[in-house]
Amino acid sequence: MEERAKYDDDRLSALPDDVLLAVLQLLDAGTAVRAGALARRWRHLRCLLTDLTIDVADLVPRSPDPSSPCQTVHDMMTAYTAATAWFLTPNKQRSIKSLRLTFYLVDSYLRSIGDAVAKSGGSAAGPLEFTILADVDVLTVNDAERAMLARRFMSFLAACPVAFSGLTRLSLQNLCFGDSDISDLLGTCSRLELLSLSQCGSSSEDMLLRIDAPTSSFRTLEIREPFFHGVELTNVPKLERLFCDEDVVSFHGSCPAVRFGHVPCLDDVYLSTIHLRYYYENPRELFPAFSNLRAIYLNNLGTHRLVGTLFILQAAPLLNKLSIKVRLLFFPKIRVAKCKHMQAHVL
């Protein structure tokens, strides 16, 4: 059996580099590392990979013994940092087309990851994505811990500006931002197109998330289970899509009121009607923000608010898709006003 396996391995290693590279490109990071450790023929190929996804979860050994001790976060991040440096070894023969990293926000490893990305050239023209996980229990984490994690992240940002300058997508969780943190983040991440915030809050006195980014490439904002009391999109001229968690009041957080400033490119909105509570009293202030809107998804709409939502149709003359999730125990007959350009509505 061993001789047969060795023979099969030899046959595989005899294939041309481009074929082996195509095979290696399909493997997750952990399998690719193990392949390189077992076969010398494969080792140099990791420097030729152009589309890289390195996820800390892929580097955790899967033991068949359920009683075996679990790895600590430091164990995982030690392996992750080594694997990242291994994959991102600079090579003049390749130009990385896409790079996606998922790792824990553990202080002693962040600089090494940022330096590896910077030295490799990152993904100069294509997607460069960071998904940064918080090493906390989401059920017990408190504001002080979130503030500490935010300071750790901002130190990482300040220490590795080259790595962050090429970032196109960033996902963060369980951070409590200071007054200028978001502005500093968007200022450093000049290519950033998507920012996803999960269970995040603000340490400012009014606990608002304010985004004023007139020169940024920022196009998509996702907010899930927030601790913000409000979201103010003051000046985000390239913002196209806004997603806010549909829960009126989630287990973890609250439902912040959303206020729109200069967002001329906004064309896709997904939120709860409670997010729009400010505009029920000031409907005309919504008109400039929704003037180019093409699609809106409204959730947790109470039956007493159905008539009140007509101002949204008035504010969005170019709307062609309206989706509404009604919160009720029975469904009375409801007549839906239809915009001139609207092609679909869902109730």
Structure description:
- Residues 9-45 form the F-box domain.
- The chain contains 11 helices and 16 strands.
- By secondary structure, the chain is an alpha/beta fold.
- An 11-stranded parallel beta sheet has the order 1-2-3-4-6-9-11-13-14-15-16, with helices on one face. A 3-stranded parallel beta sheet has the order 8-10-12. Strands 5-7 form a two-stranded parallel ribbon.
- Helix 5 (73-87) runs parallel beside helix 6.
- The longest helix is centred in the middle third of the chain and has 17 residues, at 143-159.
- It is elongated, with a radius of gyration of 24 Å.
- It starts with a helix and ends with a strand.
- Mean pLDDT is 81; it is low at 1-8, 248-253 and 329-339.
Give a short overview.
The protein has 347 residues and is α/β, with parallel strands linked by helices. The chain has eleven helices and 16 strands. It has one domain.
Q: H/E series, N to C?
A: HHHHEHEHEHHEEHEEEEEEEEHEHEE
Strand order of the largest sheet: 1-2-3-4-6-9-11-13-14-15-16
Number of strands: 16
Calculate the mean pLDDT score and round it: 81
Number of domains: 1
Structure classification: alpha/beta
The share of residues in extended strands comes to 15-25%
Radius of gyration: 24 Å
**Cα distance spanning the termini:** 61 Å
What low-confidence regions span 5 or more consecutive residues with pLDDT below 50?
A: 1-8, 248-253, 329-339
Biggest sheet, in brief? 11 strands, parallel
Level of helix content? 25-40%
Global outline = elongated
Number of helices: 11
Organism: Triticum turgidum subsp. durum
Pfam families: LRR_At5g56370
Protein name: F-box domain-containing protein
